[in-house]
Amino acid sequence: MELCHAVLNLPFSAPPLDHWTLLNGVRCVTADMPDAPLTCLDLWCRAGSASEQPGEEGMAHFLEHMVFKGSQSLAAGAFDEAIEALGGSSNAATGFDDVHFHVLTPPDRAREALDLLLELVLLPSLDLDGFNTERGVVLEEIAQYADQPNEQVVQLLLSKGCEQHPYGRPILGTPRSLKAMTPEAMRAFHKRQYRGSNCCLAVAGPASAELRSALGSSALAGLLDASCPASPSTPLNVRPGRQCFAVDRLESARLLMLWEAPQAQDQGGVMAADLATTLLGEGRRSRLVNRLREELQIVESVSMDLSVLEQGSLITLEVICPDEHLDAVEEEVNLQLRAMTRELVSDQELKRGQQLVSNGLRYGLESTGQVSGLSASQTLWGRQQDLLYPLSFLPPWTAERLRSELFPRLQPEQAFVLTAQAKTENG
To answer: Can you give the pLDDT at residue 307?
Structure first.
């Protein structure tokens, strides 16, 4: 365990965090990075696609688009022009659990950028002309997504494996749901979700007492609190099963497997799942990559990923191979997975996996944007902690514990399995 101890005690520390909460429940967190050339302001809200009610499918992502169409005092495009005039940039993203809007700006212009960001996100105009125009943009985005065979296969895996759970729905929504939306319905969604306890603002960069003081009288402080803060209320349940699909224009065959993993709040379980996916599918020396690509040479690629989510995380395995090798690939994957329940991983494998997991977290804290994103996400969902704290859950996962407790849950019979091949003329 010497190397594992060293991994967790490398001469690198995460930026110190300061947490506080406004009177209306808005969570705030600052990360002091005195040498950073830019400050990142990152506003997160529990308003991802999992917050949508029936008939609102795609609303969270559509609203993200509409926010940039202007606010009560900012015309369409004015926000971007103002941020660029400050020497900054902006972006946004919608996920299953949350949505966030961030601005990068020189530290001495952060106060101005804060007012612009809050005006844009908290007071969107949602006018009808802009609504209809942007709906067309989102519909085109959906069409482009549907025209990508690789994306279709992944969405099929989620929709079949997660059944009726929100994580199985496309974040973009569907053409039918988008066409039925109205500005009034979007205003209701915004009013319901963008409330005090559902919001978190993170600031990463050189410390600014002025910026912190400004938050107490900002538009954030004027939000109504949520009477019942949004929370993970629909536990994920991945349905084991198997389906085969023929997909237009799919270049190579696919084997995909989906497993349920612990909720984000179970940090020990999440770190174990991260370690398992690393041992199995990260790098040439991982079990599946080494066996399928390096030794047998029957695949084009192997990827195994962990998506950490609040209602239950997801582990996905995707193997791309020639059609004629698909059956052999699945058989070998199953053999390797079952072997993990009988054999202990070697000390060398375990140390390599721990190192990669540790490096992944540490290297994800190099910029103000990365730090603000992680600190906001953790704080929003009630994990007010040092950014490297999850690494403390790595050492207890010994080879024996992995064999007896974790790998039995990563077996073929626990997975939803999907195979996909290109549609033929007769198919």
So the answer is: 98
Average pLDDT estimate for 92-119: 97
H helix or E strand, kind and range, residue 314: strand 313-321
Q: pTM for this structure?
A: 0.93
> Do 400 and 344 contact (CB within 8 A), yes or no?
yes
Residue 259 and residue 316: Cα distance in Å, rounded? 7
Please choose, from the candidates 98, 410, 422, 379, the residue with its C-alpha nearest in 3D space to the C-alpha of residue 272.
410
Residue type, 350: L
What is the identity of the amino acid at 182?
T
- State how far the Cα of 374 lies from the Cα of 366, in Å rounded to an integer: 11
Sign of CA dihedral 192, 196, 202, 206: positive
- Examine the pLDDT at 230 and tell me if it is beyond 70: no
- pLDDT for residue 7: 43
User: In this structure, what DSSP letter does residue 295 have?
Assistant: I
| Contacts for 2 with CB less than 8 Å, ≥ 6 apart | none
38-69 confidence digits (pLDDT tens): 999 999 999 999 999 999 999 999 999 999 99
Tokens representing 426 are 């007769």
Query: Is-contact 31 16, C-beta < 8 A?
Result: yes
Write out pLDDT tens, residues 129-170: 999 999 999 999 999 999 999 999 999 999 999 988 999 999
Q: How far apart are CA 78 and CA 68, in angstroms?
A: 9
What torsion do the CA atoms of 254, 259, 265, 270 make, to the nearest 10 degrees?
Answer: -70
Spell out the domains of the chain, with CATH numbers in brackets. 15-215 (3.30.830.10), 241-422 (3.30.830.10)
Residue whose C-alpha is closest to residue 202's, from 354, 427, 322, 372: 372
Contacts of 357 (CB under 8 A, 6+ apart): 271, 274, 275, 278, 391, 394
DSSP 414: G
Whether the CA torsion 84, 41, 70, 60 is positive or negative: it is positive
CA distances from 256 to 63, 150, 234, 290, 306 (A): 32, 11, 24, 18, 14
290: how many CB neighbours lie within 10 A of its CB?
15
For tokens 């369409």, name the residue. 76
